[in-house]
């Protein structure tokens, strides 16, 4: 396998996963993560040439009037009232949408090439793949060569700070089947996805100026997914996102007051209470938090103190793949549609891991926050005045009722 600057595969990955890097036609990085034995052994190799006639992504281009203009690098501005940085990426208005009522494209750019057909504008050069990772073609944040990453001011007024949104956005495709569901993937494939999370976390953490690595998954039209395909993303923020900043503030305050780790103590308290724990195996526990805000919400935490995904050992990575598979299946069965088959649950799966450079990282702890907007088989929770206007949450259920439903769907111990 290719040697990387910072990623070190564990024993399983050395023997059963092969990572092959290449670049797409416009210069973006692309990685195959293969778990099929013939590719792992090197008996078969992947297609590394992207035949699309794409210009370098940072090259000047012609606008609608035919004028040559420079690449429009995403910018971000700081909200003086909240301190939040807001990336602004106008190029995303042109990204293809293949899901929902306003879809703009019929082809799926995340699907593999179709054997024998003319090559379309897809992102994967090969006719098949296991798992792939690549830089987003329409990123919210990107590091542009030669662009000075300094702070300036909108309209020259020091109230409004602005600077390049010099982060990075990547896509992780879990499987080539564009109509498949993550919940239907075998545990072995999800183990490869876990390896992709760990691989990208450690490599991206060494990019200059990156503060937070955020692997996540949006699934379902109700969530706003624009591409119908089993995939996730990794955002690399050049600032501390607001939710993470709030969590770090509270975990640091808790450490200063008690000397303890808030996330560890919350997990231990849920285990002691017992009634909201919905799954556990050798390395992980899943529970509905006592102050859950979403109508379906589960937090997943490692039993061992771990800061980031790349710190997980081989056993923990396997156990995570097993638990994630079980969580997705039970999530799909959570709402009864009357036929006993459940539904394709819309959800967000969000990895919260220790920040890259912030010293408060020492008192944080890796955790997955999984939630859905759906509050019934035929209803979703809309974030109206209180939630959206004041960030003052009102729950439509209780954590105990959420946990009770999960406990009806299968045993707690899944080893």
UniProtKB/TrEMBL annotation:
InterPro entries with a match to the protein in the record: GalP_UDPtransf1, GalP_Utransf_C, GalP_Utransf_N, HIT-like_sf
Instruction: Say if the entry is tagged with keyword Metal-binding.
Output: yes
- Indicate the enzyme's highest-level EC class: transferase
- Active-site annotation: 231 (tele-ump-histidine intermediate)
Q: Which cellular component terms (GO) are annotated to the entry?
A: cytoplasm
Record GO terms (molecular function): UDP-glucose:hexose-1-phosphate uridylyltransferase activity; zinc ion binding
Query: Per the database record, which ranges form the Galactose-1-phosphate uridyl transferase N-terminal domain?
Result: 73-241
Per the record, the domain of life is Bacteria
Cofactors (names): Zn(2+)
Keywords, ordered alphabetically: Carbohydrate metabolism, Galactose metabolism, Metal-binding, Nucleotidyltransferase, Transferase, Zinc
EC number(s) on file: 2.7.7.12
Gene Ontology biological-process entries: galactose catabolic process via UDP-galactose, Leloir pathway
Residue span(s) of domain Galactose-1-phosphate uridyl transferase C-terminal = 248-364
The family classification in the record reads: Belongs to the galactose-1-phosphate uridylyltransferase type 1 family.
Provide the protein name: Galactose-1-phosphate uridylyltransferase
Per the UniProt entry, what species is this protein from, by scientific name? Bifidobacterium bombi DSM 19703
